[in-house]
């Protein structure tokens, strides 16, 4: 495993990505079925909604791939995905409000039924693309009784529930990314650690903590000092 590059890819295992993909497919279908071109002659509403749903999905992909060299970029793009889906949520709320409807209560039977459905985890295999889309469409089919409903109010409410779930998952993902960054740093910190470890690979161990030592200088000349100084003050004379 590289001492410098972070882990990247693997986004197909993320529940946030899989929910975001279902949301995108559902949004495209919703716009085709229920937004009349005569009511949206410049396709601005459709363009904004499909664009927001696509942004929510694709920024997860790019953030995951960029994680190899930039934890900061991964965090920023994950946040962009979350913000795009929040924009889409507002569009579906507006759609309901323009028709005199309000979103389902969290205590309603419909909301509870959609919220109770879980996704199975995806496992990487040799035939990645075939296996992934076979998996994804099977997972989406769990929601199809609502997503393929003839009543646009039902479909819009279902997508609202799915968007909310995705946003919640991305919020938890951001917290995890922040914790990992605070603990391990980014590529600059990893490069520094790798360089120090390579430089000190032939050095003796610290008599205090057992960590590698590095050469240091004082008024009396060179000596071995603990690489974790100032946490550890262990030292050795250079023979």
Structure, described:
By secondary structure, this protein is mainly alpha-helical. The protein folds into 2 domains: 11-189, no CATH class; 200-237. 59% of the residues lie in helices and 6% in strands. A 3-stranded antiparallel β-sheet has the order 1-2-3, with no helix packed on it. A hairpin with an 8-residue loop joins β2 (221-226) and β3 (235-237). α2 (44-66) runs antiparallel to α3 (71-98).
Ordered list of secondary-structure elements with their pairings:
Blueprint: H1 15-34, H2 44-66, H3 71-98, H4 109-116, H5 128-140, H6 144-147, H7 152-184, H8 187-199, E1 213-218, E2 221-226, E3 235-237
Antiparallel strand pairs: 1-2, 2-3
Give structural attributes.
three-stranded antiparallel sheet, 239 residues, 59% helix, mainly alpha, disordered N terminus
Runs in which pLDDT lies below 50 for 5 or more consecutive residues are 1-6
Indicate the mean pLDDT.
Answer: 88
Instruction: State the domain count.
Output: 2
Structural class comes to: mainly alpha
Beta strands, count: 3
Strand content: 5-15%
The residue fraction in helices comes out at 55-70%
Largest sheet: 3 strands, antiparallel
The whole-angstrom Rg is 26 Å
Distance N to C terminus: 35 Å
Helix count, DSSP H or I runs of 4 or more residues: 8
Order of helices and strands: HHHHHHHHEEE
- Order of neighbouring strands in the sheet with most strands: 1-2-3
Shape: elongated
